Amino acid sequence: MKFSYIPSVSTWHRLSWFRANLVCVSLALSTLFHVALAEQATITSPPPPNSHFWDSVRLTKELRDRYVNVQGPITFVPSELPPQVLAGAPLLVSPGTSAPKGPLTFLGRFLTHLGLTPHAIFNQLYMTNPDIGPRPGRFSLGTGIVLGLDANLQKIMGIKGGEIHFEEILSRPTVNGGYPTGPAWAGAVGSYFAGIDQHNDIAGGWLALLTYQQKLFYNRVNFSVGRTHPRRYFFFNNCDNFLNCTDPIMQASAGILPPPYATWGSYITARMFNDISFEMGAFEANLNQYFQHGNGWRWDTRTASGYILLGGFNYRRLQISHLYGGRYQLSGFFNSSQYKDPYTNTTHYGRAGAEFRGQQLIWRRDHKHPVPSPLPEGLNAFGALGFAADPAAPFKALAEGGFSYHGLFKRTLDREQIKFSYVRASKHQMLYQQRTRIQNGGDPRLGAQDIMRLEVSGHISIVPGIAFEPSVQYIFNPDNYYNPAAKKISSNGIVLAGQLMIDMGFLSGLSAH
Description:
By secondary structure, the protein is α+β, with helices and mostly antiparallel strands. The chain has helices at about 10-45, 50-65, 105-115, 155, 185-190, 190-195, 250-255, 285-290, 425-440, 505-510, and strands spanning about 115-130, 140-150, 160-170, 205-215, 220-230, 265-270, 275-285, 305-315, 325-340, 345-365, 380-390, 395-405, 415-425, 450-465, 465-475, 495-505. The protein has a 16-stranded antiparallel beta barrel.
């Protein structure tokens, strides 16, 4: 893949960025007004006592008060998803589990008394490609240490529904990661599907979150502004595996930073009907600071290339109020940045696309309702459809689907998944790779535009606070997105990966709340 740095933003782009935010704020104010009217109508004209919706709202509120800080799963978390985690991140601790009395328990309780909730997560990822890519038999090691603090402003300052969220991610030590991708792990495996998993390690660390969040109208409206990432709200992880819920449309084609790296952004969601919420966001497009080994703390927009607008609808049926919970999200995006066609070398402004994602519980062992627990044993189906409307986009279409089993052998937090993914590379992307190979004296064939992956993965809870996520991928017709200069077209092959996840805040007692 060939990247072009854009050293500064033109005056036109700066004005466009401000106009985008003004549009977002205007629509947000309009939404607040209409939701206020809807809320007033609900209060003055309550539904009949036997209404299923009224019972669901009451039950949801009771259980939400108990599980307010639970970070997933997506069919449980209500529309006010805690922004300190990426949407759909798997659980490391069961709801209601008491934190052990670790060495930092006193500090955690003291901070909680003040209205502050710290969290600390350690992730370490290992990957290897035994028989696939330009350089088979290589490996990569990546580390992510997430440190964060959430402030409840109602408790601290009396601001009802106000919160401040902070998170920093540290990415050391790493082996064979980074950019440029050719000599690193991504270049060794070549294909986007496997190479994208190891990306958050160019700099030693990055500001991942610093936002003010405001909940309004009995939590029907949720607004956030500050340094954040679109993946916290859009394109949620629906496969119950933090490692391999990658998305070529969202990241490679839409031009969004790797999650959870933050830029300027604002987001609003409003629950307009019983289970349907509207959402919209405006974010700074700034891949340049990332490629220049930035750390997210440079807050000017000199390296920005434009803005990203996203909007759509969420439909949620929560497992704490419905027998069969599920979530569906329809989102569209527009990125105003300048794009260079890798094959024709022409440039243009703007790229748009859309995506539909979903997850649905289709069978559960207990068949109970109302649901006393948000984590029943059962089988979930999930999938996604997406496209990018630009011939210069590296990937034009995405289709994937699979099944995830929750709670096998009564292990509440365990997940086992099987998934099949299909992505169609653009003709211009494959022509660019062909031309680059020929220039290096390599294979003159075009290569396949239809790239597929069959994946088996899991989330295995070792003890409360510690989990391991193994993954086996078999990739058909792999592309060379991360190493177009390679002389050979890669053949089908296997990629192995494993990730260790440790909730250091829970085990140390720091996150005692």
